[in-house]
Amino acid sequence: MSSAALCDIPVKLERGQREVFCGLTGIVWLHRKMQDAFFLVVGSRTCAHLLQSAAGVMIFSEPRFATAIMQDKDLAGMADANDELDRIVKRLLERRPDIKTLFLVGSCPSEVIKLDLGKAADRLSLHHQGRVRVLSYSGSGIETTFTEGEDTCLEAMARAAPHTDDEQLMIVGTLPDVVEDQLARLLDACGIAEAAKNVSFFPPRRAETLPAIGPNTRFLLVQPFLNATRRALLHRGSTHIPAIFPFGVEGTSGWLHSAGSAFGVDRQRVADGYAAPMARAQKALVHYKDTLHGKSIWFMPDSQLEIPLARFLARECGMKLLEIGVPYLDRQTLSAELPELPENLGIVEGQDVDLQLDRVRAAKPDLVVCGLGLANPLEAEGVSSKWSIELVFSPIHGFEQTGDLAELFARPLQRKQLLAV
Question: Which phi and psi angles does 41 have, rounded to 5°?
């Protein structure tokens, strides 16, 4: 479908009260991925409580994130916030010599008082030169959704990455190590790694080994919410390979074929490389098709995974899509996904939560995918729900996770059937 045709896909804009987590939540999976990085949130006690709750960190553990608590005197301008920040960073680095990359993470309070963490990061990088790299990004919950924390983090890393003219394929988006290893083996088995000459993953497992980027870098996204990161990589001269996202059998095979096409690998060569894992995925999917087929599903806007997951559930599981709500819709990032959706489908960008809940109650879907704040009220009304944040925390990419992905949606439906007996 042409870009002009993509613009013709009807999307309803909705503006009003929203129900979303803030971008600080992304620290939970980012700090697990980059083992030498530390995330210092400049925020309030509420920010600290959110992270402790989301990560489930015990009081005697020593995590790689913390909160520089802003007190009343900071908010009132009675203390120099930059001096306080410098002091905290100095103490942190003395205590944790293992930190190689330090992220200063903005929050609602730090942004309200206009604390420039970008300048602070530059100043601290210069002061601690040779000891640690300091970067900054915004994890604020003001006008954002929770997956944008990863997007702004990777955007900052893309801007700071070194330059290279070497040809390479870069896989962009945070993945569990086991899934990253699976995709690396697939790229090798399909002949794509050999054709690309070099394959890197972004972000890396160690932040100090940040991949170099340049005009001969071609990149594939594995997460559909990396809009700012995609633009930052394009600004560095890299080339985006449009592809559907590797969710399910069709998603993963399509993703691999897009990579193969970009590097001139024969289509049959690619298909031969993934034949065995695809067969396993198809077999795993059979177990859940009876539960999911014909059931109606409604996506509330939350994670920005909504469109590729809706495509997977409709095309591979036979579910009926009633409405797809998305926090934001970047048509370029999702250019390969949008044509795969059923025709005459309702897509809503943004949210007026009261109006959406009215439509949910009128439609009576079998399953609603939504944030934690809406799940319990809907369950109390007899509507089965799936937490959208669970889809971000769970390994769901690739052939080997196809059955697990389908099970995440089948489980609440099966639970309701058991309770009805």
Answer: -80, 130
